[in-house]
Design a protein that fits this description.
Number of helices: 2
Strand order of the largest sheet: 3-6-1-7
Distance between the termini: 30 Å
Structural class: alpha+beta
Order of helices and strands: EEHEEEEHE
Shape: elongated
Helix content: 10-25%
Largest sheet: 4 strands, antiparallel
Strand content: 25-35%
């Protein structure tokens, strides 16, 4: 599963998911991409699940680019713990997604197969998505 090798700090604050993606919002590498239309967190497990779906639909053909990486640690406190005992331990890693962000890109296969694969992958993710083509964003 995806996670950073090393981070400067072990835990991070939540922050705000406001506004649109300023970078990573155009299809750069492939011909078709999956673009987020809402904001949220995508966990490392969800990124992997969507990647597997795309790979199976493409039947080992074409090339896939994953344009997101889970670099934000998410903490969780144990169940039935009283308040005031500090921040919980790191449970997993997420990628912060803003509207307009390209999540996956595909090239080297038929357009219909690529669109079908990306649509199936979008069902695995907790954000709303749409299909974006190169040059038409």
């Amino acid at each position: 599963m995806l996670m950073p090798k090393k981070t400067k700090f072990r835990k991070r604050m939540r922050g705000r998911t406001k506004g649109f993606a300023q970078s990573g919002n155009e299809v750069e590498f492939g011909s078709v991409g999956l673009q987020a239309t809402s904001c949220g967190y995508i966990t490392a497990r969800q990124i992997e699940a969507a990647r597997r779906t795309i790979t199976r639909k493409l039947r080992r053909g074409g090339k896939i680019w994953i344009r997101i990486f889970p670099d934000k640690p998410i903490t969780n406190r144990p169940a039935e713990t009283r308040m005031g005992k500090g921040k919980g331990s790191v449970e997993g890693w997420v990628s912060v997604i803003k509207p307009g962000r390209i999540l996956y890109e595909i090239d080297g296969v038929d357009q219909d197969i690529a669109v079908d694969a990306l649509r199936s992958a979008g069902f695995k993710l907790p954000v709303h998505t749409q299909i974006a083509k190169r040059g038409l964003v």
